[in-house]
Fold:
Amino acid sequence: MTNYEIYYFPVQGRIESTYLLLTDQGIPFKKHIVTSEIWGKGDLKGKCAFGQLPLLQDGEFKLNQSNAILRFLGRQHGLYGKDNKEAALTDMVNDGVDDCRTKYFKFIYSDYDIGKQQYIKDLPGCLSPFEKLLQKNRNGSSFIVGDKISFADYNLFQLLQVHLVLTPDCLKDFPLLKAYVSRIASRPRIKAYLDSDEYKSRPINANGKQ
Ligand code: 6SG
Structure:
């Protein structure tokens, strides 16, 4: 029996893909929303390996680093491919997602006002590898690796979701990604979650930019 508790700020940030994974898989978890006031007290920060959130706790077990959390849940819940090669490809995709996410955060938190046009111009270069990976896997009719959902799907889906908010036509040249996003968004538990006030009321980023 899992006893997951997740600590993060009142934003989607780096934790939303984990929320999507747990929600879609029907795995219960307690969400601790950490305001800047609580965070500023410093005691929670002191419990985090790198002084940062997210933090996942499972009883006495504590884990930081958003990608380590995704991989841990992937291993624990059969969301890491059917064999070692698929696991390696899942890692490859997730690392690619994280490269894009890091660029996105730099843009949101540092370059939003001056760099928006350039960021949007460069975006197809970030997204086209995922279109090609989909195309090579069952011609995009399934998930990003193999024929079963993995932790990398939740991370890729959430990355695409935030970019659809930033620039709604960002998938106009990527039909497989567009269909992939629709398929995942229509999974019953994800659909219900995306329709919820809890999801809709939380900003994507801490500086209110999106
Ligand atoms: C911020 O850096 O949300 N975690 C963040 N910031 C607070 O003291 N490689 C790892 C990973 O993948 C990176 C973790 C990441 O898990 S993420 C963190 O802990 C610190 O460093 C972006 C995000 N920001 C929301 C926020 C945090 C600090 C400022 C804005 C909430 C609002 C004000 C304070 C707390 Fe706030």
User: Anything to note?
Assistant: Residues 84-136 form the longest helix (53 residues).
